[in-house]
Amino acid sequence: MPQRHPETSTTDRLVIVGNGMAGHRLVEALLARPERPAITVIGAETAPAYNRILLSPLLAGEMERDALTLRSAEWYAEQGIELILGERVESIDRTSRRLTTDAGRELSYDRLVLATGSTPARPPVPGLELPGVHVFRDLHDADALARAAEAGRNAVVIGGGLLGLEAAEGLRKRGMQVSLLQREDRLMNRQLDLTAARLLESELRGRGLDIHTDAQLERLEANAEGQVCAALLADGTRLAADCVVVAIGIVPQAELGRVAELEVNRGIVVDEWLTTNDPAIHALGECCEHRGNLYGLVEPIWRQVEVLADKLCRANAERASAERAESAQGYVEKPTATKLKVSGISLYAFGPTEPEPEHEVLSYRDPQQGDYRRLLLRDGRLEGAVLYGDTASGPWYFEQALAGRDLSDCRAALLLGAADAQALLDDASNESPQRPAKEAA
Ligand SMILES: Cc1cc2nc3c(=O)[nH]c(=O)nc-3n(C[C@H](O)[C@H](O)[C@H](O)COP(=O)(O)OP(=O)(O)OC[C@H]3O[C@@H](n4cnc5c(N)ncnc54)[C@H](O)[C@@H]3O)c2cc1C
């Protein structure tokens, strides 16, 4: 029986380009609102939206493929949403508000959302085009890596950030001998201080990863069949490699923005309403750039989705004046915390990796338990934390930092963790009813 969708206005068609994590989340957010436009979603991948984050446990053999699916194609149909998969939008005619896919399909839109994500960055190194060189971005990449690991030989992973580490551990767990190349002096140099990075390195070495920091990759070499067979470093080290994974970072997929002559810097430039310089076109997720910021983690993207969903529903219902309080100021940049998804290793970090002269540094280390905590405070307020081992208090620290709370009253217990520190804070506020006023000032 055909479903009725009385809440859908057929006069306003929203087209979302990209059925990835941002595009799909936007669909869910629109469905949760009372009025929404008619929606068409076009995705270049053949599979309906899946949880990209879980590609790492999938590669490591810790998860089944089906567990990644966010919603099936049938679910989209049941919601009255047109879902077109396996087609890439190639051009946008802003004057007629029409777009064209690589299959020659033409669609009109009233509002358009670009949620095209990013592509893996590639270092300018000879040999990168060789067969056997992979990236780690989508389901096809995860499949290809799993197949490469079936041969069970040597892999080289280029990049010692979150993605490189997760790829390296995944391949190691599938039986490969893995060398990991990190250009900087430490792993996860954007998140960790040297102590935490060394703890992480020694844990991973203990598991069998061959880690090279300060490594300068010079070129990749091919065997007689033209397949990649080795990575050569500037110091003369030669690492055997039947499989190479490039994981040095991401580049916003902003090509559609350029083709449509929207304002594009590194990403498609948007304002705090996720709107481009064309009021009918929005962008969100890893393809967009807001006040010079780019995105590589989902947390800020989820906040972008809420702002854009509100905006799109308001526009559709012509309720522009009834702005919801939480999104009245649009999208605002906030710090993000990082976790590593390697089983058996707990890491939680946010804020600067190195202290500034005005920072007070509190640190704690328990070599027996393998725990390390380092907090950076400025005027009693938390600005950064690196936790290795016991990370249970990480979210509490992050919450305090976001709230900008003065933690002077619990300084003595801060390193002991959330429960002790919060108890001291509670005691102090019970003793001194004036405290909140002082904090607010
Ligand atoms: C292995 C891995 C592990 C990760 N782990 C974490 C983690 O632990 N925590 C975290 O916060 N983040 C993690 N991330 C990052 C997170 O997945 C991304 O931030 C998120 O997916 C970005 O969402 P997006 O929609 O902007 O991009 P994507 O999810 O990449 O979606 C973009 C989609 O648009 C499609 N597309 C592109 N161009 C077109 C076009 N012209 N026409 C039609 N479709 C198009 C693409 O094919 C893709 O499906 C991880 C990423 C990877 C790859």
TrEMBL record:
Q: What is its cofactor?
A: FAD
InterPro entries (alphabetical): FAD-bd_OxRdtase (IPR050260), FAD/NAD-bd_sf (IPR036188), FAD/NAD-binding_dom (IPR023753), FAD/NAD-linked_Rdtase_dimer_sf (IPR016156), Rubredoxin_C (IPR041575)
Q: Which UniProt keywords apply?
A: FAD, Flavoprotein
SUPFAM superfamilies, A to Z: FAD/NAD(P)-binding domain (SSF51905)
Domain FAD/NAD(P)-binding per the UniProt entry, residue ranges: 13-290
- A Pfam family (short name) is Pyr_redox_2
According to the lineage, what is the superkingdom? Bacteria
User: Which part of the chain is the NADH-rubredoxin oxidoreductase C-terminal domain?
Assistant: 337-397
Q: Which Gene3D superfamilies match?
A: 3.30.390.30, FAD/NAD(P)-binding domain (3.50.50.60)
Similarity comment: Belongs to the FAD-dependent oxidoreductase family.
Name recorded for this polypeptide: NAD(P)/FAD-dependent oxidoreductase
